[in-house]
Amino acid sequence: MKMHDYSVLVQDVVKNYGKTQILKKLCMKVETGQIYGLLGSSGCGKTTLLSAIVGRRKIESGEIWVLGGKPGDPGSGIPGPKVGYMPQETALVREFTVKDAIYYFGRIFNMTEKAIEERYKTLDELLNLPPENRYLKDCSGGQQRRVSFAVALVHQPKLLILDEPTVGIDPLLRERIWSYLFEVTKKEKISVIITTHYIEECRQADKIGLMRDGRLLTEDSPDNLLATFNTQTLEEVFLILSQRQEAGQLPLSNETTVNSSRLNETNEQYESTSVMSSVQSIPEGYKSTDMLTKKLKPNISIIGKRRMRALLDKNAKQFYRNTLSISFLLAMPILQLLLLLYSVGLEMRYIPIGIVNDESMSAFCPDFSIIGSAEPEKDVLSCHFHNLSCRFLKYHLTDPMITKVEYHSLKEATEDAMHGKVYGVMHFAQNFSEALELRGEDGRDASNETLEFSTIKVRLDMSNQQVGISVQNKLRNLYMDFHESLSADCNYPKGYGAVPVQMNYEYGSRDEDYQVFMIPGNMITMMFFFGATMTSQIMISEKHDGIWDRSIVAGVTSFELIASHLSFQGVIALFQSFEMIALVYIVYQYEYFGNIFLMYAILAMQGVCGMAFGKFNQNFVLNIPLYREFN
């Protein structure tokens, strides 16, 4: 036979998944304008074979020719518009309406809107499709399969590959589908490869191939098989051939599949018969790849405007028709930031500190007035102090971090600290103000007793380092504020009571809020992981549901799919970055340095980095052997 007489030639094809061989030197021929029924039990390799024919599976050895070219070669049109492919799973976007699904694939096939509308009306009448505005997620399994079948037919391909198209479909509709397939193959010379669990329905096919354990046992017309094996049903033919395969009476070499009449010979006769090799059975013209490539049209472009519009429209509908998706992508950044602002980086509050004030016998000093607590003398560089413990406690130890707990006994306060009722104890001696005045006047001549009584004694529980160090730093800062105000009242030189170490800060500030430091890093981290999570989840989901593969078989390039996802998710990243910047620096008015627009750009680019990582992560997950085996 000549080259144009065949739509598909499969020659000695071997396909492995890991160490398991799925296709074993398989050979198959599909003539142009015929319905070819591929029959076999689940797991025999039918779906793998079809995936290889449409260019979605690489084979280890052998050759596959489809419509005069090798799948995946430049200009072959496969994957592409030459093939209509209906996979075993529905492989449709659940957020699509019935009409959306037809139009999505029609645009991918570069059909005009008018042509798509006409085909939609035809297919609606043929397949009794659900209402056009019904979402696919609301359709039954049988309705979804009808839509999936319509998608494969929308562009009137030269080769139609249907993987279990009639499962779950009404018997009357199944008969209509077969009648339609029979009509288009005869009138338009379209070739059809169909797999089905209903073996007897393939009696309407022009030719059937019986497949088991990765091999094609035979291929011939149904009538010839029934006559040769003298049976009433194709199931009996399949049973006989399966038994012979188990008994080793069928060929295991790379020879071409023999016809049914030779399979009915005895085993001895078969072994003595010369069988033409598979290589010799390839029709002339299929061997010249260069000649074929010249005759074929150039391959589809890397970026197609209609395809990109269709992909972006798909991504948008998947997004805004999914309430959970919208809530997660838009509300989650705000929620995360609010949790950060109200929980992370905040100063500790209400740490109980026991106060023992022997100078005034009260930690709260209700009747104390700051006037007169520090009185400078006019002619002498001296200052009289009065009840400074109350001045410190009432006017300086007022920070929200500290909660004052009054004790009248140092022993009682210490015991409560040991039992965890307070985090520390602060003790003022009875003559604290007098001793502090003498300390300033005597200087280096001050007695040990003066130094002892002028010291505020603090005992802290350091079993919790974070609390202990925070309280320690806070008390030190509060005392320095107290000492500076005291020096000002006494007309001492500015900085008299300061620690004799000068600290200069090149970047940032000593008094910078810890949250100001924490927020940028957290925003960057959130944007990165939002981008990574969103990208990997969407791409893995589309590959798992078959949408990715079905789109590529229809002619979409991987570059277009990735570009459409990254473009759409980039827009979402821009919005997420805007709402985060607006919340922190406009609504809550946290301090920032530099250009806010540059900050926005950096934050958005971090989301893009996350998307790139998500794409890498998706590739890693999908290449895990266990994932490939079970999905």
From TrEMBL:
The chain crosses the membrane at residues 324-344, 516-540, 566-588, 595-613. The keyword ATP-binding applies. Keywords: ATP-binding, Membrane, Nucleotide-binding, Transmembrane, Transmembrane helix. Residues 8-238 form the ABC transporter domain. It is found in: Membrane. One of its GO terms (molecular function) is ATP binding. The keyword Nucleotide-binding applies. PANTHER family: ATP-BINDING CASSETTE, SUB-FAMILY H, MEMBER 1, RH61964P. This is ABC transporter domain-containing protein. It comes from Psylliodes chrysocephalus.
